[in-house]
Structure formats: C-alpha cells, structure tokens
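Troubleshooting: if your tokenizer reports a length mismatch, compare your output against this known-good record of 312 residues.
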Amino acid sequence: MNNELNNRWGILYCPRNGIKSKRKRWERLQKELDERGVHYDMVQSENTDSVERLVTMLIRNGYKTIVIVGGDSALNDAVNCLMREERSVRDEVMLGVVPNGSLNDFARFWGFSEGSDAQTVEWLIKQRVRRVDLGCIRYIDKYDEKQHRYFLNCINIGTTADIMNLRQQTRRILWSRTLSFVVSVILNIFHRKDYKMRLHVNSETIDRRVMTVCVGNARGYGQTPSAVPYNGMLDLTVVYDPQLMQLFSGLWLLISGRFLNHRSVHPYRTRELVVEEARHALVGIDGKLMKTPVGQYTIQVEQEVINFLIPE
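Known-good structure output:
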C-alpha cells in the first residue's frame, strides 16, 4: 500500500465560492488526469475551514504527492499543515497546485494559469521539484499566547488588508469577484487611511504614518515584483500616504508591473521585519485576513523548507 501511495496523488479540490459549475470544473481536470493515466484519489473541501483538516488527512494517510486545486488561501492552509509535521515527514511530500481560486498569485509566479489544465497536468507529471522558502509571522494573540503562521506569497499590513476585508463584505452583496474588488479599491481610494507605524528593517527604523506595507516571499500581488521564494530573503514595500492623483498613478504602475517606480513606494530586501507598532492596521496573509496581532510582531523567512512542483 505504501509503495502504491508513492505513485498516487492525493488531490484536494477546493471549489470557488459562488461558481455554479463547480462539478464541471472538476470534470475538465479529471479528463486531463485520466487521459494521462494519473493515479489519484480526490477529496473535496466543503468550505475554507475544512482545507487544513483534509490536507492533514492526506499527509497522515501517506500520500507523497499532494495537489491543491485552489488558490493562494488553500495553498497557505496546505503549507501550514505541512509545517506542523516532523521534518522527516514533510521532506517526503511534494506539493503541487492547479490554479482554481479567487487569487492565484503564487501559481502565476511559476507560470501556471487557470484554464490551462492540460499544460499544468503535464508539468506536474514530470515531478520537477524546487525547495522553496516560506515567510513566517510570529505574534501574540488576544489571549496572550504565542502564535505563528507561514505564508508562500505575502503579508499585507494596512490598506491592502482593508481592501481584502471590504472585498469579502461587498462580495456577499455583489456576488462578483471582479466587481467586489473594484468597488473595494474605489472605496479605499476615497476613504483612504494611514496608520501610525514603527518598523525595524535591517539597520533602519521607520517611525511615521504609513498607508500600507507588503512583505513578499513572492510577487505579493504586484507589490513586491522582484521577490522570489528561493533566495532566503523577503522583499518589503512601504507605501507612505500619497495624494489622490498619485494614488491613481500608483494603481496604473501596479497594473503595468512598475509599482516600485512610484515616488511613495519605498522598497527593501531583508531577512526580518519587526513591527513594533501598527496601530489598528489589519493584517492579511496570502489573500485572506488573519486575526490582528496584539503588540509587537516579527516577520521572518525560513529557507528551502517545502518541496514544490514547478514547470520545466
């Protein structure tokens, strides 16, 4: 049985919320898998809360190749499950992704794209593995207990996390990913906030009002475009409060991949960021909100800790 599982994939299918043809999406992928003779077992998540439970089940049942059909949030849950295992266990597991989420930034970093299932399956079959870095936030929660959580893509502090929060709320009303995102961005432009922050990065202390901070292990939704998850470093962008017209130019630079050229954007590269103060600023991790840490917290990088399946 163990030898069979070495060659058998454990697939976690995470349907996107609000998509009516959830079954058809799986059937398209299933067709590509079956045509290529892939041996697999599939489990489907009922909701976001079930992802960690199901990934843990696949790990404990001995699957060596675990493929997440989902987005950044589902991948985040998967790597956090892996990091709870002994190193000897996680070193034997290869993690793959088929993009199927609201946000697929980490998959796109490698060249995987939603709607290209045939190409994605071909790449996954080749089992080309890259050891990738993880970022890690260490903090104290409201119960005064030490906590930590890992991330593949990025952590956002401030306005970008506000947009995530608004997007979740507006989506319940609008039932459209794109429309809810656009509305959230517009609301934040005209009701923009800045936050009193005190940050320690390398030998520098930033003590001023800041609009948003992105700590990227990868591209960070365009905010850390030079970050790569295999150099043992984190990219950091700190955005001071721009004027209204500068905000619009900043959005254009973000879309066009030239975000670091904006005058209000200050980039850094570091192994550690200490957030001594970020009063009232929400924190988002890999595209979803996390419970806001209490007091000071630290964001670090852990080098080459996950086996990730990448294209040729």
